[in-house]
What does this fold into?
Amino acid sequence: MNADERKYPKGNTSWPTRTLNVLLAGIGGQGVLTASQLLAEAAVQGGHDVKKSEVHGMAQRGGVVTSHVRIGRKVYSPIISSGEVDLLVAFEEAEALRWRPEVRAGGTLIVNCLRVLPPVVNLGLFKYPDDPLESLRGFTGSFLPVEASAMAIEAGSPRLAGTILMGAAAAVLPLSVEHWEAAIGTRFTTREIVDQNLKAFHRGREYALSLGLAPANLLHNR
It folds into this structure.
């Protein structure tokens, strides 16, 4: 999707010259695709070029769901090359471990502190990792575990976890808060749901900022 010049400003000249690559990963039903749409819309609101691709086979049966979102001045492909992910947002701990090798050296990893056992584990066909978060501690880039699901329940709905994670992502992505807020207003329908998601977004963002995450983490650790 490209920014509509009648509605949005022309390409943001403050954006880094290279394309930023964001990978979102989780389990069917966690809101991965909604979150990727929110990210893409925030980027379009900021006047950037965006390409997005999704894989959601068996999404309603607890299968893996991923979305590639590429943002830049001009983006030609919706697919992120292997090992070139700048930011991984994992909605589940084992999925963070699964997709960690795709993150470049010095990249950023944001992980929801939640374990979801897929059907293959319940059937005894696959062993869930003993402690995914502990296995990720040696990650050399910026690593942020977020109790997004717990925060979402406190905020009134487990569905808000994805927006909380996007708030955390907003701390490292060079997109303005105003563009994120506009995207939330566009993506959700009723005033009540918009307000809930705005609060969830700011909670996630403030949490990440309180731990020192900033766009410099993403842009300069390369």
In short: The two ends are 27 Å apart (CA to CA).
